[in-house]
Specification:
The complex is a heterotetramer, with 2 copies of chain A (319 residues) and 2 copies of chain B (278 residues). With 319 residues, chain A is an alpha/beta fold. Chain A has 14 helices and 8 strands. Chain B has 2 domains: 51 residues, no CATH class; 222 residues, 2-enoyl-CoA Hydratase, Chain A, domain 1 (Alpha-Beta Complex), CATH 3.90.226. In chain B, strands 3, 4, 5, 6, 7, 8, 9 and 10 form an 8-stranded mixed beta sheet that branches. Classes of the chains: A alpha/beta (319), B alpha/beta (278). The interface between A and D is small, with 8 and 8 residues. The complex binds zinc ion (2 copies).
Chain lengths: 319, 278, 278, 319
């Protein structure tokens, strides 16, 4: 058992026990009532102590948790409508980076985002959310469509990174991301970005420039994976926990550095422990941001976005 | 993000001389007379291998003598993460790089004349932390782009970089967005932007300003790509074909406008600038 | 340009009945009850083969009853070349097509309501000289696009065409440019343009307005492509893979946004229109 | 010997004989002088009778003549400068459709055009001037570059058609041409098109929309090749001459139909008989057109171009 991966195993055990007792309590509520109450208290205490001081590496585990909501879950739970549009009109359709016309509480937005799979089969198709150039080019096409119709763009980030494959290089992974950055910098409609899981380097940023960049409380966003960083620094991928800490990849750190604009709260222990609550939080946050940026003229939007990015890492801001 | 990997032995010949008079070409191992080697500069007369140049060397062979006026030499590395690997801090590493190179950052920017035409330039220096894109690098490139915009001067960037600067974490990644925001303004306002891709241009630099030019020029055989070869090989579990991620490969795949030999580069840039100016 | 080739026997089942009560699916040869066949309409319940619809049939299943107002029904074929193959003139051929179809051109255009939303539509009819793009076709499509522009109404085009109309020579080719000029204005002015590609959409129609939509919807298994299969086979000297140039193939290759079964098409269009209208 | 292909064989024979006599005349000018003069007159008469009433099919032969100037010849002969730019920034670089920054008598223009080869080797590389989608996408990129710098576009047409290959279909030949048509319709800089050889259907039109469309006197421009038309109409490709006539593909016919704006004269018998004169004529025509369209505002340009194309095949223009 990997102690890092299952740091919440103890909690899972208690939960299983409570569930078991509750089942028995149906027949004999008097007998099990106290025991359940006792366990519930134990659980609450454990949760608090366990989740109050999560290490960055533990947060990485939550961000990558197999039961964490994925883009399709947000689409189904938050958006009253989603018309998926396919293809980059150049080469192919990327199942790992999807998009379409979406409606959220009577507000329309073009939605784009990384789509990981939950099954092996899905992950083969979606390439674990690692997009190919055609994914970025589809996103660009949809952003231009949004601009034509003066619709805001909502971008969901959840990727280990852009796919590092031979064909991806041949078809210009670098150019595809670069073109998107230049285009997003001058897109004349609002762009709201939310990092929901893994924000993996250039693969995340390739659809990640925005007027508001939000981050779920247990999401991470990093220039390099902790494993990659560890194997470079110490030639030892197992030292990923140390790298995760050094890289400052949590929402709190990013907020502090001014790279994200707000943190969207998650239930204690992570989105997977209460997906409905998470979805509601994300929905509220998106609507708030949509309302905020809807007020500005295209010109003002682009200017403000420029200033926002020009300010990140401004010389003399640090020292 | 790979600049701290061990320097490939095919590079850096200009520093490690075989003996005082001769330089060994890092690629074909031909002995070249030191004077000839540095006059080329650093191009093997036999196999046309283009060894890396420092930013100053690049400026010297590119601009008219005495015309370069540097922007913001004071801008230096920042350490937003207070990053350390346990043994050595980024701060120490950066100080060492400064001492070794005489530079404060991985890019030198400024204004100068190229064949009598005023241009804004940014030249990356691979010796400085592998030409990595840190906040100081991004800031200097943005300020230079902004200068080019305000004075309506063509902007030329010579890239040489392993990618984003890991030690500055997310702030480094954001320099990709920041520099592209500067480039996007040039596109909107009709200011020429030429990206010159030299060995190596990879990772976050290839995926931002280096691949967003009006015109992309590369030096022969320069390594250009997004992901590192090792990562790709591990991903696809097969060896990469010869010539993969070279300038020639990218030309064939449609991402480079032209490849110019180092001795023709200045002339090539001059022609393009003169074309636009007319 | 291939509409005068012999009609492939897999099409046209709606006309050639096996007996009065049954229709044989042109693809899987299943016997389908005539009522069921035309109620579908013309979709095989077993293999989902979508047989071609006439323009009127398409309008009937797409628009709200009684809402269609036709534009320019008087616009008909022109004969700029006074074209003849020696035995039969284009004029005669066109007259015959008019008589057979009750149409004056290969496209019917107009305004109507789709699920209570006002739209401008153009529907091609493959029976009319293979849905070929002649000057009258192009003119009607341009006028419809122009109407959509002036009234700021979404424009929906259902394509079904073998390509340009050879008998009108260069004037036919120019209809590709002409229709795209109309579409370009819609793009510039933010008017939605949906292209619905039905079987077949090839040649000059696929290479113009049909592939220039904001959204591309195709019917299942529709043949969509630029060059004809025979020409491609002769060029590359090998057989084409199964499924080549089908709607599904184009979806996979990134050129189609979605494929909608005929029974879902109206609903699909309505959703998109409602989305834009909101 | 194919009588269609070598309709000017008799002329070639006389020319050879004159050349031979001239060689001999070096030694004995008195003896051969009269004979040469006689032959020269015969040649002139023959030229006049031969070229005065060329059939459309004969003109097709001239348009496809292996010695006819190709794009590289025009570039070298007409333009004082050409900086070739490569690649579509998507997939590849098409040697059969080239482009770059050009200068013609101190006027700048972005040049695009089909490039056929003269040798077998070149034609393999250039695919006989039949462009792939990446060719059309490169042209589009260069046209957008022209727009950024407010430079006019000059497009040279000489192609049997867009390449009908499996890969070309897979990468969207139809979409590539369609996208170019929509883009050329709204490009805010002047576009001058000249058909110098074969104007082959959609493959020609894909870079062929313009404010002025010129045609060399012996160029052809057709919706389908005469061979293709003949094999459809009569299931006999050998009847191409009849099809060539029926399709009205010559410059004179196109001018009459309002599809081209002017005919650029060629030397009697075709461009290959005096390339220098042809180049000079093309140069004059291009400069005249560049001057003409330089006067208009972007808005006016696009409006006028729209009207021009809307007028082609206007209902009631014919009857
Ligand atoms: Zn060497
Ligand atoms: Zn069937």
């Amino acid at each position: 058992m990997d102690p890092q991966k299952d740091f919440d195993q103890e909690l899972k055990d208690i939960e299983a026990k409570i569930a078991e007792l509750k089942l028995l309590a149906k027949d004999d509520s008097v007998r099990f009532g106290t025991e359940i109450a006792q366990l519930e208290k134990e659980k609450a205490d454990l949760e608090t102590s366990l989740y109050a001081n999560l290490s960055p590496w533990q947060i990485v585990q939550i961000a990558r948790h197999p039961q964490r909501p994925l883009l399709r879950d947000y689409i189904e739970g938050i958006f009253s409508e989603f018309i998926e549009l396919h293809g980059d009109r150049r080469f192919g359709d990327d199942a790992g980076l999807i998009g379409g016309l979406a409606t959220i509480e009577d507000r329309r937005a073009v939605l784009i985002g990384h789509q990981k799979g939950r099954t092996v089969e899905d992950n083969v198709k979606m390439n674990f959310g690692m997009a190919n150039p055609e994914g970025y080019r589809k996103a660009l096409r949809l952003m231009k469509l949004a601009e034509k119709f003066r619709l805001p763009v909502i971008s969901f980030i959840d990727t280990p990174g852009a796919y590092p494959g031979l064909d991806a290089e041949a078809r210009g992974q670098a150019e595809a991301i670069a073109a998107n950055l230049a285009a997003m910098a001058s897109l004349e409609v609002p762009i709201i970005v939310i990092v929901t899981g893994e924000g993996g380097s250039g693969g995340a940023l390739g659809i990640g420039m925005g007027d508001s960049v939000l981050m779920l409380a247990y999401a991470v966003y990093s220039v390099i994976s902790p494993e990659g960083c560890a194997s470079i620094l110490w030639r030892d991928g197992a030292k990923a926990p140390e790298a995760a800490a050094a890289l400052k990849i949590t929402a709190a750190s990013l907020l502090e550095m001014g790279v994200v604009d707000d943190i969207v709260p998650e239930p204690l222990g992570g989105a997977h422990r209460d997906p409905q609550q998470t979805l509601a939080n994300v929905k509220d946050a998106l609507i708030k941001r949509l309302k905020k940026h809807a007020r500005f003229s295209p010109k003002k939007l682009v200017e403000t976005r420029y200033e926002k990015y020009a300010d990140i890492g401004r010389w003399k801001n640090w020292w | 993000m790979a600049w701290f990997r061990k320097r490939k032995n095919k590079h850096g010949a200009g520093e490690g001389l075989d003996e005082n008079l001769w330089v060994v070409c890092p690629d074909c191992k031909t002995h070249v007379h030191r004077d000839e080697w540095f006059a080329a500069p650093k191009v093997c007369p036999k196999c046309v291998f283009h060894d890396r140049l420092t930013a100053r060397e690049r400026l010297d062979i590119t601009l008219d003598p005495g015309t370069f006026r540097e922007f913001n030499p004071e801008i230096s590395t920042s350490d937003p993460l207070l990053f350390t690997d346990g043994k050595e801090s980024y701060f120490t590493k950066a100080e060492a790089a400064k001492g070794r190179t005489g530079l404060n950052e991985a890019v030198v920017t400024g204004s100068g004349k190229l064949d009598d035409q005023t241009v804004t330039v940014a030249v990356m220096d691979f010796r400085f932390l592998g030409g990595s894109l840190g906040s100081g690098t991004g800031e200097k490139i943005l300020l230079a782009a902004d200068y080019a915009l305000r004075h309506r001067r063509p902007f030329i960037v010579f890239s040489a970089s392993g990618g984003a600067r890991m030690h500055e974490g997310i702030v480094s990644l954001m320099q990709m967005a920041k520099t592209c925001a500067g480039i996007a303004r040039l596109h909107k306002e009709g200011i020429p932007y030429i990206s010159v891709l030299t060995d190596p241009t990879t990772g976050g630099v290839s995926a931002s300003f280096a691949m967003a030019g009006d015109i992309h020029i590369a030096e022969p055989r320069a390594l250009i790509g997004f992901a590192g070869r090792r990562v790709i090989e591990q991903t696809i579990r097969q060896k990469l074909p010869p010539g993969f991620q070279t300038a020639e490969y990218l030309l064939e795949h449609g991402f480079i406008d032209l490849i110019a030999h180092r001795r023709d580069m200045r002339n090539c840039l001059s022609r393009i600038l003169r074309y636009w100016k007319r």
